[in-house]
Design goal:
Helix 2 packs across helix 3. The chain has 10 helices and 14 strands. The C terminus is likely disordered.
């Protein structure tokens, strides 16, 4: 029992980022968390965590060990759920992560519908644009855009999202781009990366040059690390923006924004569900993925994403 508590506490510290947060989650004193970690490291004879007053970080040995620990805890939870359930009822804890804006608009409403159908599932939804470590942070599923190089994750195709160049009618009355070359000197709104500096801005938009998608450098002086702000600036007529169709489809339909250079739009970006590579997928995870896949086949969602579910070469 002591070994199990040590492992469980170790995983909670990693997932929540601090001893105090893990202590609150378990309902114990931070000193007890520290004693359990000390006992675990002493028993294993290795250092698992580098601890300071502000944060904790995994050592190389800790990174390898936490994956095994999370698998063990998941399998125990799955075994308990299977024994406790007298039918195929979906139960248990489901930890999900999705991009902030997309998650608010599409995933959060689907979670609400899912728990109405499966009231014995507890869902924790993390909305963040940062790159998460699905395994180390204990997520059951991550909804993400584009291709991912991590071969240890199972990739489930859900749909496809198209990006377009948009601007307000008032802006286009003054500055209407006719070619890619025009983007180098017209006001373009850029998504700033960490720190929000102009030097770290997304001044490269992926458009078609001939038959090949290419990163095109664009001009402009405004940038922000919040896509909603760029959307607002674009509506206000401050520049051209390169946004996902799901963000701007309602404004385009209402005439508040117009798409330009449509013939140069790059192929749609896949929307995928990323799952830890496990031999036996818990019923709650499989049920949620199936639920999302079905929802993403609806004409409303397909139209909002701006691309068909199965898109061929352009």
């Amino acid at each position: 029992m002591d070994q199990f508590k040590q492992i469980s506490t170790f995983v909670h510290v990693v997932q929540r980022g601090s001893l105090s947060a893990a202590a609150r989650h378990e309902g114990i004193a931070p000193a007890m968390v520290s004693r359990r970690l000390d006992a675990l490291e002493s028993r294993l004879g290795v250092k698992l965590l580098q601890r300071t007053t502000r944060r904790v970080s995994l050592t190389a040995e800790g990174s390898a060990f936490v994956e095994h620990c999370q698998r063990i805890l998941r399998e125990l939870e799955d075994a308990e759920s299977a024994v406790a359930a007298r039918s195929v009822e979906v139960t248990g804890q489901l930890r999900l992560t999705a991009p902030a804006g997309f998650g608010r608009q599409f995933i959060a409403p689907l979670v609400a519908q899912f728990v109405e159908t499966h009231p014995r599932v507890n869902v924790a939804l993390d909305l963040s644009d940062r790159v998460v470590d699905v395994v180390a942070e204990g997520f059951d599923c991550a909804i993400r855009f584009g291709e991912h190089a991590d071969a240890s994750l199972v990739r489930i195709p859900l749909g496809a999202s198209r990006r377009v160049v948009v601007a307000s009618p008032a802006f286009l009355a003054r500055h209407r781009p006719r070619s890619i070359d025009d983007l180098t000197h017209l006001p373009c709104l850029a998504l700033a990366e960490t720190g929000g500096s102009a030097a770290g801005s997304q001044r490269g938009w992926t458009l078609m040059q001939g038959s090949i998608p290419s990163v095109v450098r664009v001009g402009g002086t405004l940038s922000c690390n919040d896509g909603a702000v760029l959307h607002g600036w674009c509506l206000a007529g401050l520049g051209l923006a390169w946004r996902s169709m799901w963000e701007v489809s309602e404004d385009v339909a209402a005439g508040r924004l117009e798409t330009v250079l449509d013939e140069l739009a790059a192929p749609p970006v896949p929307v995928v569900g990323l799952l830890p590579a496990r031999k036996h997928l818990p019923l709650r995870v499989r049920s949620f993925i199936d639920f999302v896949k079905e929802a993403f086949q609806s004409p409303h969602v397909v139209a909002a994403l701006g691309a068909p579910q199965r898109s061929g070469p352009r």
